[in-house]
Amino acid sequence: MKQAHRVVGTSARRADAVAKVTGGARYTVDLSVPGMAYAFVVRSTRAHAAITGIDRTAAAASPGVIRVLIGDDLLAAGLTPYYGHVVLDHPVLAIERVRFQGEPVAVVVAETKREAAEAAELVDVSYEDLPVVIDAQEALKPDAPVLHERRGERVGDEGMDEGEKGLVGNVCAIARVEWGNIDEAFAGAHLVVEGEYRYPMLYGYAMEPYNALAFFDQGDLVVFSTAQHVYMVRRDLARMFHLPLARVRVSAPYVGGGYGTKSYTKVEGMTAAAAFFTGRAVKLDLSVEEAMLTTRSASAHIRARSAFTADGRLLGRDFQIVMNNGAYTDNTPLVNSKTANRCFGPYRIPALRVVARSVFTNTVPSSSLRGFGAPQGNIAGELQMDEAAAKLGIDPVELRLRNLVGPGEEFMPGKRPLDADLKDDLRCLASSLEWPGTSIGRSIGLGVSASDAGAYPTSTAAVRIHSDASVTLFTGSTELGQGSRTVLAQIVAEELGVALETVGVVNGDTGVVTYERTTGASRTTTITGRAVQEACRDARQRVRDLAVQAFDLPRGDIEDIPGGIRARGRDLSYGEVIEKWFGAGGEVLGHGAVRRAEGFAKMPPFYEIGCTGLELSVDRETGQVHVIKLTTVGDVGFAINPALVHGQDAGAAMMGLGAALHEELIYEGGGQLVNPNVVDYRVPRFADIPDDMVHLLAERADGSGPFGAKGAGEGAGNTVGSATASAIGRLLGIFPHELPATPERVWRLIREAERRGRSQ
Amino acid sequence: MGTREIRLRVNRGERRVVIEDQTLLIELVRGLGLVGTKLSCDSQVCGACTVLLDGRPVSSCTTLAIEADGKPVETIEGLADGTKLHPLQEAFIERFAFQCGYCTPGMIVSAKALLDAHPEPDVAKVRQWMEGNICRCTGYQTIVEAVLDAADQMRSAR
Amino acid sequence: MLRRFDVHRVTSVAEAVALRQRFGEDAAIYAGGTELLLAMKMGVARWPHLIDVKPIGSLAQISASTDTLRIGATATHWDIERNPLVAEALPALAQLEANVANVRVRAAGTLAGNLAFGEPHADPPSMLIALGARVLLEGRAGSRSVAVAEFITGMYETALAADEVIVAIEIPLPGKNVRAAYVKFQILERPSVGVAALGTVRDGRFVGAPTVVVGAVDEMARPVPTAQFAGADARDAGTLEAIADAARAAVEPIADLAGSVEFKRHLVGVITQRACAALAAEAL
Fold it and tell me: Which residue of A223, A623, A726, B139 is 20 to 30 Å from C196, comparing CA positions?
């Protein structure tokens, strides 16, 4: 199968390689335009307060200051002062009230960043404090302070399948997944495993903090930014300024890390507003500390029960999930509903009940982050498989094998059947880790997941074949480092039969490239890749049309060959056909589109598989965990670029280890972040590399993407948290139910295990 | 407040630059158009802003530009010789040791300081030296491999 | 973002002292800048004047006599970890210095600056106190020398007078048979617990009492009363546990992101045992 291909299936060099190793790659933060002014944000010092006054006189009089902008200015100018792709409730700048510490209250625009920063200190905001609620469980109580007495306007459906039903108090969104008779299932169970599980709130730390450069060109808004979803941001900005989509251009050059944290609008609204009110090009670049006050991921508190037969077959699962949403809606409804879909696992479950609620609190708004609910859900769903195995005396791998669905089998009624062989993946994983392991003091944990990935399958692409037979691909997919330019170029080279070096890629600019819904949910290879294939096929069709006319050929005599056509025994390159048809110069344009039809008719467009495990040891004196080996099985259908898949798997797994062992945003009760910088918020480092890392590929051409491919990028991290907890639990005899498993938490588990051991 | 003119060698060129006393080295180099050096954590923990000052790796985000007076400064832009890449740059490409690329300039400059000081590092040395450089994309292993490859390559070229 | 300030580059200690007198609270001594500039960027400290002492060539020197190692005030961690005199005379200090923060901080940051900042979560103070090191200061009234144990007076507080400048750190060299060890437990950017141990073990027993100083866990490094362990069996688990008990009792841990008071006190015991065990492991 693989041998039939020339370019796909090879670890071709990254298209952005030289630019990125020489310092030549230009990110948004590197861009400037002549006459550019700088913005600096004044942020709320309060977690929840009414704004009783904003005195900007001193700031406005400060040297170099052009304008001090507040939320009321947007209202007065008739702009839409809110954004949000699901609910229009996130103020560009606070209006009347602040709902989290760090919320933007004003923007100072000045000639230099220093002048803007100095003047920002002079903006005098008066507050009247309101009661603060930080914890999601507290926020659900009847007497909790309510963040949104009036709900924002609904402008999108993502994650709102249940509509407004039950959205009272601080409940932002509800998701339900139910089938079978849950009460009967539990009544007839041989074993019920029950527990509460917690997954931390995280900061994704994309190393290029959010930043944007905005200006108006004859009334058209032009924004360069760190956006993952340029077309989503375009829609928010068009709404804000009452502009048609065609008059808003959002462009993302190289982006310094995404991982979901840069999906949807962040600083673009503030920057564009600053440009609007000053008539200047304005740059706003946040510090990492400010980025930490912009977006985080939702923490989860899960009450879970799983019912098993004596031989380890699942009878039913029941999950009550509460997610800490933060102050505004943003993308949390979708994260909430994905958590609901991803918590129970790709198992045969006769009866299921999942109720997930996403709850407003006075904390940084949460949104997407790699894994998108799967790591949160797995800490309960996968760990209970291990807890049940321990109680039933069944090997945890065997227990999973007894319950996993097979290829082509449905596990969510009405949804796409599983497009993977998870049992075989799990066997590969277990074999790589030498399961069950025999060494004393070491322990293996592993897990599987199947995420409903790909988001909504709308994608378009265009290819231009030039008169020298080189090709330019236009795609709305943003290059975040995942290698989309490389993979998509490989698909073009394969489809058109041209050399990879002759394929150029233009991407991530709504003013130039074709529509792409999002760059997330591991969708680019699968969905954009299919649109690219279609564009190539369309271009080939047009080349044949040209050949028919230019060489006066009967259509039936033309066949495709790599890089051109063959007619009457003669090979003609694309360039020859194009030049002949035009007489001089010219080009051919092919357009491709995919939608929720044909291969993508059934949702989700594909499942992203997670199959990662690790072996670890624990320092019983300090509680410190050491990861000895980590294996990922990349079940990607077909690896268009194996090295890039390995890179995604390694990166996702390492991020997963961060949450498993170290990372957690911590709030004190008054609403201040306790670790508001990356000195105190510890992400994985070189010291955390497992002694051995193995990245396996499972290629069965069973994906809905090009050449049988399906997405990677998140799956490898999805089970790392639960696998870590599982390994620690198997070693200590008590399973941790809360991540990260910090030295202190592990030490407390060790002590608890000792206590139990003594009392027995 | 004070401004002064300093003279320094940046990569291969002698420069005279007027700075303010509080000007940071990263502001100086980026102001010269050398924007490969990146700001991220702004607190010396991530290493994205690493440059070599007088041959030593420093966080240019927390180093005053004044320090460069009379000294050589080497940034990522100084590693390649025209279109001929430095062995570290070649190795980073071959090993896919970067993704988004934002940490990469600092990572490569830090690795160059390592190989200058320890031409034949082992895995432990690479990890210990690079501990202060954060990468959020790769999971680090490919970076370790790239640095070791470059060391091998440079040794065999000697 | 840094606010505006003036840098005064001085070429003599006298000049630095004069500027200290002139500017008083408005000036800070600037050498490595790794702590100072960070604090200024965060806005927790603001000084209109920085007195740059690096141009004073003599302050960068590291020298050793038969009984003393002298480390100049502008010698960086990088200088110290590579210095052959340090490696020869005090390998445990060289080792400690090689693991302070990260390579860039070591390349710029100075040992004197580390002490001057009074940062409680630091590696060097416990070792320097264990070694009986002294800080040499020069001020308006002349020079004086203060034991490191007295120089650090609290969290971010030192005995440095408003007109004084650190000139050097003098470390008495331990006897030939004395071993030194520094063991730390670190998860975040700075150590959670660091223990310096110093002593001689012969035939499995401590010769005299070992010196143990616990750092990074309390407001400042704390010496552990160890007199009772003179001559004790250094390889005996009971002895090590008893020293650990003494160490736990000697500190008032500060709860922070690295752990609770209870956990840190526990860690103090564990790391103390490991440091003392290292003395025995390297014994004659």
Answer: A623
